[in-house]
What does this fold into?
Amino acid sequence: MAQVMYATTANMLSRFGEQDLILLTEREDSTPGEINLEVLTQALIDASAEIDGYIVGRYTLPLVTVPTVLERNCCDIARYFLYGDRAPEQVEKRYQAVVKYLTSVSKGDISLGLADTGESADQSELTVVVESAGSVFSRQSSKGFI
It folds into this structure.
């Protein structure tokens, strides 16, 4: 199975900013003042793998289309992973909310808005047909009582 990342480094930048990501990805062997793309990419891969663990029972992986909610969840998980043991309360609460959401998805309580195959459910293909056997109460069938 091909590994699909539900978020990109650009998504992380737009959500959390460059300065935050520089601080979170800085390692001894990295260039000071720059985002360590290897560390950031690994966090996104790990976050995507965690998401897959929750949704694999409900959807065929890899997903053809990625819902926006999974992009946001992937960013929150990756950020939590980057903080490690130093995660502030706000980051930990966001991670716990994502886990709660994904648990609900895995139980089937919440849908990602995708068909079981992982594709978006196209509303234009859904058709409703209503048939009626006619009127139950009419002047002809009531024999003069109406």
In short: The CA atoms of residues 2 and 21 lie 26 Å apart. The radius of gyration is 24 Å. Residues 9-120 form one domain. Residues 120-124 have pLDDT under 50 and may be disordered.
